[in-house]
Amino acid sequence: MAQLKTKIDLYLKANSNTWDETKVRLQDDMVDGVSSPYIKTWSYDIAQPTNEQLASYETAANAAEKNAGIDATRQTQYLSWQQQMEMIYKDQKNGTTTFKDHCDKVRSDNPKD
User: Fold this and answer.
1) Tens-place pLDDT, residues 4-33
2) Alpha helices in 2-111 (DSSP H)
3) Pairwise CA distance, residues 99 & 77, whole Å
């Protein structure tokens, strides 16, 4: 199940807004160890989303969270920018495709849907 923040973020983007910590505050009143997050305060100039509206973003939010995890993994595997620049330099000097091959492998090892 997607996080409430992710669904709200998608709702805001669909309504030409962005997340602003000063305009929305979430709260989670754990009940018997069960998480039940909700919107505590809302001060955007658009209507606060209903539970039904937020539920409609579940699939997209799950995909966004999954892709964020894949992006984080890819970032660690791409190596440092210095190492990438060295690969690019050597590729240009030697007529090779080491950098492109490396990036292709990172992407194929960590595919997005």
Assistant:
1) 999 999 999 999 999 999 999 999 998 888
2) 4-14, 51-55, 58-77, 81-94, 98-109
3) 12
CA separation for the pair 83, 34 (Å, rounded) = 45
Sequence-separated (6 or more) residues with CB below 8 Å from residue 2:
57, 58, 61, 62, 64, 65
User: Residue 31 has what pLDDT?
Assistant: 86
**5, two tokens:** 């923040």
Closest CA to 112 of 55, 61, 74: 74
Please report the pLDDT score of residue 110 as a whole number.
96
Q: Sign (positive/negative) of CA torsion 65, 67, 70, 74?
A: negative
What's the rounded Cα separation, in Å, for the pair 45 and 3? 23
- Taking the CB of residue 87, how many other CB atoms lie within 10 A of it? 19
